[in-house]
Design goal:
- By secondary structure, this protein is an alpha+beta fold.
- The mean pLDDT is 92.
- Helices cover 15% and strands 36% of the residues.
- It has 3 helices and 12 strands; from the N terminus they run αββαβββββββαβββ.
- Strands 1, 2, 3, 4, 9, 10, 11 and 12 form an 8-stranded antiparallel beta sheet that branches.
- The longest helix has 17 residues.
């Protein structure tokens, strides 16, 4: 009985404070993450380090906090962002996005804007079908609750999220 209690307590601690299993719903993060992939998100990492450009984050959808989204961070607070026919520029430098394969780009543009303090601009890797900050605006820091860490299902896709 003692071993069961300890196991449950340790599992609860890990799930509540460190890692949480989630399921991907949708295809906006293809080819990295597919619909119905299962992964662990690190819920603790942003308590000890800053969010970085390129991180794949999980956050509460700004217009309905009962929904969670998973997207890639493109611009940080204070960054100057512009999208010109699908080409992303941060602080007047073109961003090389190796995670967006040919055929997944789009031609959308966004006028130059400065990302507000405490906000992050996020986009899906499958740009032509992604609902992201181009549609709902930057995401407030307090809505971001985890960083995608490791895909565990399906087994042939298992590995670290990059």
């Amino acid at each position: 009985m003692r071993d069961l209690v300890v196991s449950v307590a340790v599992s609860a601690f890990i799930i509540i404070f460190l890692y949480q299993p989630v399921r991907v719903e949708g295809t906006s993060m293809l080819p990295m993450l597919k619909d119905q992939d299962r992964l662990f998100i690190n819920k603790m990492v942003y308590r000890v380090e800053d969010i970085q450009r390129g991180d794949v984050v999980v956050f509460l959808y700004p217009h309905d906090h009962s929904k969670s989204y998973i997207k890639r961070v493109i611009a940080l607070p204070g960054d100057d962002l512009r999208i010109d026919h699908g080409e992303v520029y941060v602080n007047n430098k073109r961003v090389v996005e190796k995670y967006v394969p040919v055929g997944f780009e789009d031609e959308r543009s966004l006028p130059e804007t400065v990302i507000p303090p405490h906000d992050y601009f996020v986009m899906g890797d499958h740009r032509s079908i992604s609902s992201d900050s181009r549609d709902f605006g930057p995401v407030e820091r307090n809505l971001i609750y985890g960083k995608a860490a490791f895909v565990y299902w399906p087994m042939d896709q298992a590995g670290v999220v990059r």
